[in-house]
UniProtKB/TrEMBL annotation:
Keyword check for Signal: yes
Biological process (GO), any one: transmembrane transport
UniProt organism field: Candidatus Avichristensenella intestinipullorum
Protein name (Swiss-Prot/TrEMBL): Extracellular solute-binding protein
Leader sequence segment: 1-24
Keywords, comma-separated and alphabetical: Cell membrane, Lipoprotein, Membrane, Palmitate, Signal, Transport
Pfam families associated with the record: SBP_bac_8
Keyword check for Signal: yes
UniProt record similarity statement: Belongs to the bacterial solute-binding protein 1 family.
InterPro entries registered for this protein in UniProt: Bact_solute-bd_prot1, SBP, SBP_1_CS
Length: 424
């Protein structure tokens, strides 16, 4: 009997201790704290700034004395690196998977928050793990939107030339060949100043040619399979072939086009059959007045990774109040009302939600329907720091005939190997 009593006392002590610890942790959180919380994010356009303001208003209900400062910027990555390295970084900021790895020493691990708020279960499959794949078992950021790309095409041109939507890569090339041979229309628009559109297409080609597991090994700096090398060389050869065939138009002209205005100034003229771009440009396509349709890259994987994710400054590793505020901040982006606002503004949520009854444009609806089955791929310039710049330059040189596909691979791979070496 004595042992049973002792055991009962021990259990009660444990329960009381656990309750006391939880209560103590809760009382450490100061919901009336008065301070500014600066958020250096990527939501620099008017539509997303407005939604951010709505998030701030929601947080006021629980945190009445915190002023959320929206410091979103188009060049937020550059600004973020400078501020964090100088010790003047923001409390909360957004990162993509490469920026997260680069800035990891400045980011607080938030695995406890992710588990407590069930963010994995509340997100689309693979969304939470995407930016955290380089730190298995640990979470440092939480996304709330995706960044899927697809082909946008001029429906009138496709109807006039009796073109079918391509479902294989061979059919895609056949469509471009027919447009070039049977009309004066430009088969494929590209903003060559950065070459974003053509690079995203090359990424799709590499992922669907080399095999996704080999691509992942290269992307996560584990190895460079021969299949990946060969796929990149083939992709550069493909780009040169398209240029030689005139599918992109005059190369010198194309290389001077800025991606911020090419939809209005090139596609918007009505003589372009199609281009490859992201869902964040849907409003720009709609503004052209051209009846536009959408179809996915004809392959299993597309460039449709998660967008930037929210991270907490490492300075707050041991600050229960700021960690609680960050948890509520991220949770606000999972709120059905906020998710709906992003969706109706033309963005693709990475959060599970019910879109029934929400109002979206026909083009947005078509985009969502026609890309729903494409598996999540990678923006391959995120494989290592500096890759986007070298890929832009390298692809431009291929287009101008200044580099062979093999030389292009060597130039790109040199930068990749250098970045991997520096990381080690």
């Amino acid at each position: 009997m004595g042992k049973r009593v002792l055991a009962l006392v021990f259990v009660l002590a444990l329960l009381t201790g656990t309750f006391s610890s939880a209560l103590a942790a809760e009382t450490e959180i100061d919901y009336n704290i008065s301070r500014e919380v600066r958020v250096l994010g990527h939501l620099a356009d008017d539509a997303r700034r407005e939604i951010f303001a709505n998030v701030a208003a929601k947080l006021k209900e629980k945190w009445p004395n915190i002023e959320l400062v929206d410091d979103s910027a188009n060049d937020h990555g550059i600004k973020l690196r400078l501020e964090l390295s100088s010790g003047s970084g923001p409390e909360i900021f957004s990162v993509d998977d490469l920026l997260q790895q680069e800035l990891l020493p400045y980011i607080s691990e938030i695995s406890d928050i992710v588990e407590e708020r069930n963010f994995v279960e509340r997100s689309l499959e693979g969304a939470l793990s995407f930016n955290n794949q380089r730190t298995p078992g640990q979470y440092y950021s939480v996304p709330f939107t995706m960044s899927p790309c697809a082909f946008f095409y001029n429906k009138a041109i496709f109807e006039e030339l009796e073109l079918s939507i391509p479902t294989t890569f061979e059919e895609l090339e056949a469509v471009m060949a027919k447009i070039k041979a049977e009309s004066d229309y430009l088969p494929l628009a590209n903003a060559g100043l950065s070459n974003r559109q053509i690079l995203w297409l090359l990424y799709c080609y590499v992922m669907n040619t080399a095999g996704i597991e080999d691509v992942r090994a290269w992307y996560f700096q584990q190895s460079t399979p021969e299949t990946v090398k060969n796929a990149w060389i083939e992709a550069f050869a493909l780009l040169k072939r398209w240029c030689d065939a005139g599918y992109l138009g005059d190369v010198e002209t194309v290389l001077g086009i800025d991606h911020l205005v090419y939809i209005a100034n090139v596609y918007g003229k009505g003589n372009v059959a199609m281009t490859y771009d992201g869902d964040w440009r849907i409003a720009d396509f709609e503004a052209t007045g051209i009846e536009t349709g959408v179809f996915p890259y004809p392959g299993e994987y597309g460039t449709n990774a998660v967008d930037f994710s929210w991270a907490l400054n490492k300075d707050f590793d041991n600050d229960p109040t700021m960690r609680a505020f960050f948890a509520d901040f991220v949770d606000a982006f999972f709120d059905p009302e906020i998710v709906a606002q992003f969706y109706e503004a033309g963005y693709t949520p990475s959060v599970k939600f019910d879109s029934e009854g929400l109002t979206v444009s026909p083009l947005r609806e078509e985009f969502m329907a026609n890309t729903a089955d494409q598996k999540v791929g990678y923006f391959l310039d995120n494989a290592a720091p500096g890759m986007f710049d070298v890929l832009t330059k390298t692809s431009q040189q291929v287009m101008l005939g200044e580099l062979t596909p093999e030389q292009a691979w060597e130039q790109m791979n040199d930068r990749y190997e250098q970045a991997v070496s520096e990381a080690q």
